[in-house]
Amino acid sequence: MAGQLDISSTMGNISMFNTFVHPSAQSRVSEVLSTTFLSEGKLVKEFEARLAAELGMVNPAALNSGTSALHLAMAVSGIGHGDEVIMAPQTFIASAISVVQEGATPVFSDIQYETGNIDPASIKDKITERTKAIMAVHWGGYPCDMDEIHALARQYNLIVIEDAAHAPGATYKSRAIGSISDFTCFSFQAIKHLTTGDGGALCCTGSENAREVFRRRWFGIDRAHSPVSEIGERIYDLTDVGYKYHLSDYAAALGLANLEGFEERMQYRRQLVRQYHDGLSQVSGVTLFEHKTDRESAHWLFGFHVENRLEFIRTLKAKGIASSVVHDGIDKNTLFGGKKMDLINQRRFDETQIHIPLHDALLPEQIEYIINTIKQGW
Prior knowledge:
Elements: H1 2-11, H2 25-35, H3 42-55, E1 61-63, H4 66-76, E2 84-87, H5 93-101, E3 105-108, H6 120-126, E4 131-137, H7 146-156, E5 159-163, E6 171-172, E7 175-176, E8 183-187, E9 200-204, H8 207-216, H9 249-259, H10 262-280, E10 286-288, E11 295-296, E12 302-306, H11 309-318, H12 344-352, E13 353-356, H13 364-375
Parallel strand pairs: 2-3, 2-4, 4-5, 5-8
Antiparallel strand pairs: 1-9, 6-7, 6-11, 8-9, 10-12, 12-13
Helix pairs in contact: 2-9, 3-9, 4-5, 10-13
C-alpha cells in the first residue's frame, strides 16, 4: 500500500482528455498571420487533399465545426419538415439538433449495450413512411454495423449519414470511415484526435452531393463558377439557402500541422488500449465493450460497464484519476421528445457506462497506475 501511495503522489491529476498541438503548428500559423490572408484559401484546399490522401476521406469539405457538418448534411440531403431521422440517443445533442434545425424529427432507436452504437434490429422497428435517413453515430470511435445499416437503407430507400465526430482514422472492413456512406461528418474540435481549434469536415460518396456541399458551405455561391465582375461583385444567382460554414486558412494551418504524425499517434493510442484490455479484462465488476476484428476503432474513448459506478468514480477521483460517462442518452431532453423507456439497452447503458482517460499525452506508466487503482476495488 505504501508503494501505491508513493506512485499516486508522483502521478498528479490524470485528465480524461488532452489537446494535441504539433510542434510545427506555431510556425505554420505564424506564416498565415504574416500573409494576412486568414479566410478560406489554398491551405484549406491543401488540408482537404491531405484528409483524402492520408485518412481515406472521400470529397472532404473542410468546415468550421462538426455541428456545421451535421447540419449541412441534413440540408443537402433534402431532409425537412415532416421527415424523420432514425438515430441512437447515445451521442451529443448536436446530432439531434441538426435534425430539428431542418424541421425534421429525431426518432430514437435502441443501442447495442455492448458498444453504445445503434442497433440495426431496432432501426427496422422504427422505420415509417416518414423516415428519410438513418444517422449512425460511431460511439467512442468504434464503427457501427455499416453493412446491416446500408442493407436497411437500400431496402427502404433511405439516406445514410454517419456522425463520425469520434472516428477519424477508423476503418470498417478495411474501408476508411469517410468513404462508405452518402454523408459522413467529422469534428476537429479542440480535444478530438485532430484539431483545427474548432472545425469539421463533411464527406460525400456522391459527386453531385459533394458539389452541393462545397457550394452551400459558402452562402450557396459556387465560387469556382462565379467570377468577380469589373465592378467588383461576384456574378451569381442565389437559388437556395447557403451558410457560412467554410474553414479558414488560419484554422487549416493548425490542422495541417496536426496531421503530421497522425498515424503514429493512432498506433500509440492502440498500444494504450491493448494495455487497458490486458489489465482490465479479468477485473471483477468491469465488463469491457465489444471490439470485433472486422473493424478498427479510432479509440477516442476507452469505455466499459462498471458495477457500483458512483463509488468507482469517487475512488478514481481520490487517486487523481478522471472518469466520466461523457454523455448519457440525449432522448431525455424535452426538445427531442423526452426519455424513451422502451429503449431497454440505452437505459441500461445510462446506468453502467463509464470512460477512463485515453489521449496522446498519457504514458504507459499512467495507464498501469489506473489499472492497478481499479484492481484494488471501489
